[in-house]
Amino acid sequence: QVQLVEYGGGSAQAGGSLRLSCVASGLTTSTYAMAWFRQAPGKEREFVGAISGNDGSTYYGDSVKGRSTISRKYASDTVYLQMNNLKREDTGVYYCAADYSLHSILARGKPDYWGQGTQVTVSS
């Protein structure tokens, strides 16, 4: 059974940094594409970024590009999202997701597996 558990959410100041972690079980992250999505109150879910399983290529949504980094630690099946220069509009629930197909994430935005989400609140 696949399980994705997010850690690291909380409150942060605008201009600051935050690192989220996602620990996967029931799958091997080296063979799955992993991703982060977020949803702000009253808004649709938004793609934040993804990392491919085979070569570690990374992809980012326009709203976070240039100030976010996705990385992974294969040994512990953990994926990280480092966010810098936080903005109030980064506030939302952040979800870790996984799919065997990177295409399902990038083109369809519908990964097979989702975590429960972790709240991030950025204040000025």
Quick recap of the structure?
It is built from 1 helix and 11 strands; from the N terminus they run E-E-E-E-E-E-E-E-E-H-E-E. It has 124 residues and is mainly beta. Strands 2, 4, 5, 6, 9, 10 and 11 form a 7-stranded mixed β-sheet that branches.
Descriptive report:
- The chain is mainly beta and 124 residues long.
- The protein contains 1 helix and 11 strands.
- Strands 2, 4, 5, 6, 9, 10 and 11 form a 7-stranded mixed β-sheet that branches. A 4-stranded antiparallel β-sheet has the order 1-3-8-7, with no helix packed on it.
- A hairpin with a 6-residue loop joins strand 4 and strand 5.
- The relative contact order is 0.31.
- The model has no long low-confidence stretch (mean pLDDT 95).
Number of strands: 11
H/I helix tally: 1
Poorly predicted sequence stretches spanning 5 or more consecutive residues: none
- Profile the largest sheet: 7 strands, mixed
Radius of gyration: 13 Å
Q: What is the arithmetic mean of pLDDT?
A: 95
Strand % is over 45%
Helix content: under 10%
Distance between the termini: 40 Å
Q: Which term fits the overall shape?
A: globular
Write down the secondary-structure element order. Answer: EEEEEEEEEHEE
* Content-based structural category: mainly beta
